[in-house]
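Justification of computing resources. Each target in the renewal requires a structure prediction run like the one illustrated here; the chain below, 276 residues long, is used simply to show the kind of job we budget for.
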Amino acid sequence: MSKGPGLFADIGKKAKDLLTRDYISDQKFTVSTYSDTGVAITSTAVKKGGLSTGDVAVQYKYKNSVIDVKADTGSNINTTLTFTEIIPSTKTIASFKFPDYNSGKLEVQYFHDHATLTTSVALNQSPAVDLSVTIGTPSIAFGAEAGYDTTSGCFTKYTAGISVAKPDSCASIILGDKGDTIRASYVHHLDSLKKSAAVGEISRRFSTNDNTFTVGGSYAIDPLTNVKAKLNNHGNLGALLQHEIIPKSILTLSGEFDTKALDKTPRFGLALALKP
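Resulting structure tokens:
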């Protein structure tokens, strides 16, 4: 694949991951196993409140293709087929969900040294079409995406963004929700291994004049332990601790508090992921 500007979905992704990834408010247990033949099996159990759910995912890799099948406790089966380099510099992704036979989707990604293009089409009688394009380099990229509903003949979304990346930092601006919101973020890595970082994000919704400013970051206490925290101007504080108890197996403790309403019950989460 080309080392170009990346997909449009990558714009602002580093900041989003730092501020949202691994923050949980339930109990989650995951066990993964792998075989030499390219088969990976992952079992997940989740308890949220008094409700317990779970799923089993099987992944098979063969040459330039990957097959993912996931079955959950609601009797839903999700299947994703990924093919790389069927046509040079492309990735093709087909997904289906049973018993919802109208949920199929076909996505084609094209990568070039100075541009990427993604087209997604729903596989039903009245397909929705999504298109995104990014131009630039790994250091600076401009992108836009749009969604079109063939049934109503209307655009369901249009978004534009810009990203600027340096070896130790990354900044992005995204205009989304059909021009109703704007979000700007900045990530600065605090070490050469990029295990510790600080992040700031500000967003504004023009229709409601609502502004949200969030700061956060992650810090590697040692090679096995990492902590993250975030706080926004609405008083929502989140923190988590991750520790690698054995190689590739991660224990995550997470909590979220409303500092402006301390009488509310804090939310806590626990996740354990075991991998061979």
